[in-house]
Amino acid sequence: MTAPGQSHNPLQYRNIGRSLNTDYFRIADQLTPDELAIWRRARDFVDDEVLPVIGDYWEKAELPWPLLHRLGELALVGDGIEGYGCPPMSPVAAGLVHMELNRGDGSIGTFVGVQAGLAMQSIAMLGSPEQKQRWLPDMAKVTTLGAFALTEPKHGSDAVALETTATRDGATWTINGEKKWIGNGTVGDVIVVWARDTADGQVKGFLVEKGTAGYRADRIDGKGSLRSIWQGHLRLTDVRVDESNRLPGARSFKDTARVLAGTRNAVAWGALGHAVAAYDIALAYCQQREQFDKTLVNFQIVQSRLVKMLAEVCSMQLICRQLGRLQNDGALTDTIAAIAKMNNTSKARQVIAEARDLLGGNGILLDYHVIRHMADIEAIHTYEGTETIQTLIVGRDITGVSAFV
């Protein structure tokens, strides 16, 4: 989607990421002035600051620190959390931020998903007033980094079966276990660690601070996706935290799931951003690229493929717009978020694959951005619940029969 006032001038190949008009169903007309302003701020950041440099960061697998800090300066981090220094934004505005950041780069989009959607939301939804006041203002500014440690080496899709333990001894807890694929786990100042209470068997959340004895985080190297954000393999050996660092609202895995439901919503918006980027790039490329003495858009097969890509993008947009409405009304359910995540990541993969093919050999060059989106969507399609798991969640809801073991 493109906010009003966006330039539609033809693009040069090395500036091929600037958003074109994909808002075919005029969703922008339904947005409030505040939503449009936030959207434009995120969009301009992506166009002017992210796209010119992100390819180098991605290729070198480096964290784009200047861009991450700019997110805080531009008041784009908060995911709609109210108060505590978080920028005000509606559910739709928060979704538009996720969409635009992923349109620029999946790593930056994932960073905000971890920082705001997982770590900050865990504290906002389940933390004490003191915990919220201590952590949220600086996390919104991105002067303090957060991480969310749930997934374990042996437990990805079956996260509820986590084996990390927490044992209470008076006013302190001792945590032991391993976590894997933890975004910001190697650089985070505060890590939300989920562990099973050895006394009652329930899953609870703890805030483990950087530098705590027994906390070790090793960066996972060799990734071919989301290369500009670092995931960590965490090992917690007799990590001791005070009772004041336990999230009081986290009493069972159901509370963990409340946080995860919101992130599936954000992933659906993020997948839309990847699809918008791929479609925009493909359209601009086909308008410029000449073969057989014609630009590619003169060929019927090219027009057909572009229209089908646009139709998929529009369907994703409409789903995301409805997600925002439902979330605003307090009517967004786990199953609705699940089907949106499942649908949008799957459709985004298809749109990106079409774009890569339309660009021919140039489609594998980082200068044209598509190959980066193609690699990154693979991780996004998997994390926060795979397509299979989301499908079974919805299947259980519509049939009344659980296919989970």
Verbal overview:
- With 405 residues, this protein is an alpha+beta fold.
- It folds into three domains: 13-141, Acyl-CoA dehydrogenase/oxidase, N-terminal domain (Butyryl-Coa Dehydrogenase, subunit A, domain 1, Orthogonal Bundle); 146-252, Butyryl-CoA Dehydrogenase, subunit A, domain 2 (Beta Barrel), CATH 2.40.110.10; 254-399, Butyryl-CoA Dehydrogenase, subunit A, domain 3.
- It is built from eleven helices and nine strands.
- A hairpin with a 5-residue loop joins strand 4 (190-197) and strand 5 (203-209).
- The model is unreliable at 2-19 (pLDDT under 50).
Give a summary of the structure in a few sentences.
The protein is an alpha+beta fold and 405 residues long.
